[in-house]
């Protein structure tokens, strides 16, 4: 199994397994309502069963789109959610004026460069590389190429670079931002492209076809760690913290690995560290 653990240098807090109660922000029910956009994945059924064994009743609330999930949490319709990375949460908080926080980390999905009929980036100099043009992926895609040594930025390391930050004369490839849905088409035409995980399966591309992927341990990858989020007053709630612990159980991690076809990388980071990253990204987004 390709699952890799990333454990922070600071030890995660030990979560008490007793005295579990529903969040104060929810209704009077003892059920914990958790929102997500991928409720059909195997990991959720495994997670729900394990939580029940610990005396926690979960109601997984499915959403078909990202945009309403944080708002439902902020308005008290959910107790917690798990669907987003830190950067997305930071942008939501800044744009909405809300103050959602991170209860714990889950996993990260490396972003990769694909080049049909190639097993490495050898010979890629001079090629035109397609990257997703959406705000959630464009900067990260550019940094994938920076890590690969194919692109040089004018100002050195930048958390969320744009094409304007690229030093074209010093770079080995040209970058062309396009709609993320079109990146598999470019790949199938024989041109290199950075394709995010959500489009791989639909296009029949396997993760092991990647010729390069970003390092999930790098500072540049921190914004893309996926998290459990709650209202700020609930981040120390024992039940929510117990759920984070249970998500990292061997059974759930095996299901996540199966759902992601081996691409997910488990991330266990201290809650304070994660919220520090969130605060930094919020400042950058203002």
From TrEMBL:
<comment type="similarity">
    <text>Belongs to the NlpA lipoprotein family.</text>
</comment>
<protein>
    <submittedName>
        <fullName>MetQ/NlpA family ABC transporter substrate-binding protein</fullName>
    </submittedName>
</protein>
<dbReference type="Pfam" id="PF03180">
    <property type="entry name" value="Lipoprotein_9"/>
</dbReference>
<keyword id="KW-0449">Lipoprotein</keyword>
<keyword id="KW-0732">Signal</keyword>
<keyword id="KW-0564">Palmitate</keyword>
<feature type="signal peptide">
    <location>
        <begin position="1"/>
        <end position="22"/>
    </location>
</feature>
<dbReference type="InterPro" id="IPR004872">
    <property type="entry name" value="Lipoprotein_NlpA"/>
</dbReference>
<keyword id="KW-0472">Membrane</keyword>
């Amino acid at each position: 199994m390709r699952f890799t653990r990333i454990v922070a240098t600071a030890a995660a807090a030990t979560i008490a397994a007793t005295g579990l109660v529903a969040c104060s922000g929810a209704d009077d029910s003892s059920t914990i309502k958790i929102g997500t956009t991928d409720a059909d994945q195997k990991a959720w059924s495994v997670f729900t069963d394990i939580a029940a064994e610990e005396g926690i009743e979960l109601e997984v609330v499915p959403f078909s789109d990202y945009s309403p999930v944080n708002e439902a949490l902020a308005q008290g319709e959910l107790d917690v959610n798990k669907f987003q990375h830190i950067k997305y949460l930071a942008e939501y908080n800044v744009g909405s004026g809300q103050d959602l926080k991170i209860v714990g980390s889950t996993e990260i999905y490396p972003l990769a460069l694909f080049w049909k009929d190639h097993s490495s980036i050898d010979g890629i100099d001079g090629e035109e590389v397609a990257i997703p043009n959406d705000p959630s992926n464009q900067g990260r895609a550019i940094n994938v190429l920076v890590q690969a040594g194919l692109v040089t930025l004018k100002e050195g390391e930048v958390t969320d670079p744009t094409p304007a930050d690229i030093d074209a004369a010093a770079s080995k490839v040209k970058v062309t931002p396009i709609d993320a849905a079109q990146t598999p088409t470019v790949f199938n035409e024989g041109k290199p492209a950075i394709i995010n995980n959500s489009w791989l399966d639909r296009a029949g591309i396997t993760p092991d076809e990647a010729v390069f992927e970003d390092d999930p341990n790098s500072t540049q990858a921190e914004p893309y760690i996926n998290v459990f989020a709650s209202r700020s007053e609930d981040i120390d709630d024992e039940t929510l913290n117990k759920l984070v612990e249970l998500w990292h159980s061997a059974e759930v991690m095996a299901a996540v690995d199966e759902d992601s076809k081996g691409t997910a990388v488990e991330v266990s980071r201290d809650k304070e560290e994660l919220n520090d990253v969130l605060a930094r990204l919020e400042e950058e987004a203002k």
